Fold these 3 entries.
Entry 1:
Amino acid sequence: MPTKPWWASAVIYQIYPRSFADRNGDGMGDLSGVCENLEYLAELGVNAIWLSPFYLSPQADAGYDVADYRRVDPLFGDLNDFDTMLSKAHGLGLRVIVDLVPNHTSDEHAWFQEALAHPAGSSARDRYMFRDGRGNGGEEPPNNWRSIFGGRAWTRITENGVPGQWYLHLFDTKQPDLNWDNPEVRTEMESVLRFWLDRGVDGFRVDVAHGMVKAAGLPDWEGHTAMVSGDETENPAPQDPVHQQKPALDPPSPFFDQDGVHEIYRSWNRVLKEYQGDRMLVAEAWVEQPERLAQYVRADEMQQAFNFDFLLAGWDAERMATAIEKSLAANATVGAPTTWVLSNHDTVRHPSRFGLADPTTFPKGISAEDEQPDEALGLARARAAALLMLALPGSAYMYQGEELGLPEHTTLDAAFRQDPAFFRTNGIERGRDGCRVPLPWRASERGYGFSSCDTQDGNTVAPWLPQPPSFANYAVDVEMGVAGSTLELYRSALHVRAAHTLGEGTHSWAPQHDPRSGVVAFNNGPLTVIANTGSAPLELPPGAEIVLASAAESASNGELAPNSAVWFTN
Ligand code: TEU
């Protein structure tokens, strides 16, 4: 029996609702599709699911632009479908986490519409970040901030037929940033928390958790000046301060990781404590320094933060070893469990990243014009990385399809792409659509069984994004019950992990650990884990009893092949 709260060691499976499973045949996943496949997830052995946004939204950023935090978008069903899904999940022993998007709303949210209808200086405007422009006629934006999706972070509105104030949007123009200095904003978001807690959700994944508070006076940021080139009015090359500058932003960003943000989480922590049953918050905060990130998970704030340091390490023993060591150390100082994540709906799927000539690169999307990954090599490495991740103490996050070894769709035609980042950078940033392609369930069906034919006429429309032909090899029904498949590797790993309570275990480097030679090796409980990222086979200790190997032939003759990993006891 676990002695710590469930989330301290949970394996949490991310569902991207529009691409998980489609029950009503409209080509878009839905909550009934989630509900129908909960047994699949329970049998896989995950402990919880996290659902990306399914709230009412114009879908300008695939639902991360929320128009009503208390309603389900008709694309996905209704509140009734949500409640049915939730109670079935709980019945199967699965916890349910929902996404909360507090940094910005949709421009179609009632509040923003009200703000547009009221004059500068009104209380309706004060819920957002409206400012007068610079220059004589206010024709220059209030400061030099750039949107994470490319282009300016400010858009000017038209008032009574003439150009008026500007509003801030760190993301798309259709995602105006809220003003977290406004008490009404704080009260409203706590009420949204309660709305979902009352329905029974077990926690929230907090979107852009490091972004809500901005530096007083909204100062220009020199960090941009260095990176921005070309005409300010055009969409310049993508600016991503978070991923481009490591480990610390210099000068620090005035819109990310401000100290004031922690007060918000202290009050949310108090809200959660009013409820029974270890409810939790997990921060999506792209904060590079593990010590800064650890601040989000102090005892009176959030329970977890995604450990992107591990994700960003790529397939590189030294970087993985450093990320593991630093993350464990940083979290130990605050007493919080460490989390591990390899992929999500914002990143190129890791089997594809690991198949690039430099498997530590971190493209934000891949197109047909770009270098194409070696699919087999990337998959071999991804399977080995899964064995590393699932043996580490703490909590692990999986992204839907990861258990199938699903690759990125790297040749997706521009005509199908929907990610706002793609458009705001004129396609320079390839966009995140390639990792959001609908899952293949049944290889022989149209759309690989993504949509169920339960519509009246038995017809379904094509999935909202086309799937590459290779998805036929990764379908659930192709891998299910097949020894050696990625699905069965994950299932075995999750069961061994549970049997030995590895999530609650202790990490210590094993004698074989030698990252400079490409070897990552550690002990946890009775298991030793070794991953070989090098190019030569590695000798396993005599008497090693193989528990699980990432490739059937990888641990034969007492040797561990390159690009593979094993769990063993001796
Ligand atoms: O992402 C926040 C964020 O910082 C991302 O832009 C990230 O840096 C990038 O996608 C990595 O390639 C969250 C959501 O996960 C993302 O889907 C949303 O678009 C974004 O917030 C805005 O809500």
Entry 2:
Amino acid sequence: MERQPFNKIVLIGFMGTGKSTISRLLSGRLGWARLDGDEEIERVSGKRISDIFAADGEAGFRRIETTVLESLLKDESPAIVATGGGAVLSEYNRSLMLDHAWVVALKASPEHIIERVKSDSSRPLLQGDAAERVHTLLEQRKHAYDFAHFTVDTTGLTAEQVASAIMEAY
Ligand code: S3P
């Protein structure tokens, strides 16, 4: 029996692995909508992510993240959904993703991640010594993305090649 493909692809992965860039490319190639968890969190709350962390802590942010993820995934239309790097930390969120979408993990080396995130000061979890924070969080999350249906190691690949690898596997 042939697998009935999901009409949603969820991109998971650590901060700076290229989820937003790849979601744009896939959306263009498949002609599907592009939904972005972090953008949607800022839209519905009317606040920047850093302000949500400052006012309500990480726990407050995670509550909104789950509500937003639910609404994005339960929508019926085809879409590429880019998630924040910590959306996978909740068991509930992981089940939601697996139930509604083909889940694709993007992996990148610590060096590559640090290079991508260091010039962007908007991430509350990377305040201070960003390189040190990346190493600590990567260690804490080393198996957090293993539940994906498909994983792409982006090392040495262009964004176009990453998108092609995903399209071929879909
Ligand atoms: C987070 C990743 C961020 C954002 C928030 C928390 C995390 O998204 O959701 O700052 O816990 O890894 P990106 O992965 O898009 O940077």
Entry 3:
Amino acid sequence: MAQQKMLKFVNVERDMPQKRVPDLRKKDYDEIYQEFAAVKAEEQASRCSQCGVPFCQTHCPLHNNIPDWLRLTAEGRLEEAYEISQATNTFPEICGRICPQDRLCEGNCVIEQSGHGTVTIGSVEKYITDTAWEKGWVKAAKPFAERDESVGIIGAGPAGLAAADMLRRQGVQVTVYDRYDRAGGLLTYGIPGFKLEKDVVMRRNKLLSDGGVEFVLNTNIGVDISFADLRAKHDAILIGTGVYKSRDLGGPGAGNNGIVKAIDYLTASNRLNFGDTVPEIESGELSATGKKVVVIGGGDTAMDCVRTAIRQGAISVKCLYRRDQKNMPGSQRETQNAIEEGVEFVWLSAPKGFTGEGDVSGVVVSKMRLGAPDASGRQSPEEIPGADYTEDADLVIKALGFSPEELPTLWDTPELEVTRWGTVKADFQTHATSMDGVFAAGDIVRGASLVVWAIRDGREAADSILDYLNNASAVAAE
Ligand code: FAD
Ligand code: SF4
Ligand code: SF4
């Protein structure tokens, strides 16, 4: 009888790829998790019980066929595993690295629910596609036939790039416009290398180029090219511009030097790691080296800032968050990584103002307690009167979330409908906006979200754009 390859969770413990020790990883921006060895990946994949109704798949925004690629990995049939994995995910090795799996696929694995520790789905997904790259199985688009229609995509983040890939594979002429000098959106300039090494993103950009996607970089739509001109040039448009307006803080001293936005801080650090000259780092304005750093916020952006500050050689790094650890929005895994690297978390603390004359010297902190749950069920923080104190700081990084830029004003398109939060109104399934032939995907529709949702939106929008182009050419042929 053939040996049973699966259901090994009873005897095989859950195991993640090894993390590099904090003292070593603090010295560079390389990813902290090491690769699974082939034997380990097969062993971990074999823990899956091949559920008839796989909750992991239901809770993956891309509905990845997880049980099938786990079984194929356990059987050593990696090329087939890769084929299945890439059929539903444009960037599986990126999701394997940075999806908050504890809230998505892995958090809903039945083995986890039964107390055996989840199947390490993300690490296996990363392993499959990293191997595919090594073996040369990852191929650029080679459309069966070229089409005449062209699509202009504004924004080279995961939403725009996922759509570009789908459309190009169908032979559509695709041009992606971005105001940055490198494609990738937040994958390139937001998320630090210790979570996602940049060559992983750059090789994807090159693959898209090799497949015929045209990139027009350093081009801000609404400034360098008007939206109207872009629309006249292409048969359809996809808006995938993300959300970049940082939420701000007021209070006394809020205008002091040394109080900076998280996105500026992280972009500068990522640029430096590409080898660019970054005057704001050279001047010290966006550098944590030799400073007492306070980061305000409890989300993933705050976690990326504190860990970057550690790597830049800050004297101390503290993270202020107004709720407690249980109620923070950021990933618990990343918080643990930050604690291991020397970050101090100051829970139940909210900034009230800043000290210093010209240059910041501290943050005035109100101590909080958690009150009754609000409508969403989360406990609201309340100030404890008389418990204020000052936290010393010579660099304060505000990581309080992002909202959308005002696209109808910036692009002179009052007919582009937006929600009351400023996100673009798009049909939930087709991603069509209020303007004919204009679609939208990713954070600019959802508000600040996740890479995996941006990929899903981009893929769905590409399907709708193809329908739109097909209908238009059918009408023209009548
Ligand atoms: P973006 O990635 O923001 O890309 C939008 C692109 O549009 C940018 O390149 C921008 O330059 C371009 N653009 C904007 N306006 C114009 C214009 N007018 N003209 C031309 N180009 C324009 N998600 C995860 O799943 N896991 C994580 O670990 C994670 N960590 C994060 C860490 C940080 C610091 C941040 C800020 C976000 C993180 N996210 C994470 C969220 C994730 O990065 C986003 O949800 C995702 O990148 C959204 O994709 P997008 O394509 O919609 O937009
Ligand atoms: Fe899990 Fe994300 Fe991969 Fe889906 S894409 S299987 S949620 S890691
Ligand atoms: Fe396998 Fe867990 Fe998914 Fe079930 S829920 S198919 S055990 S990974």
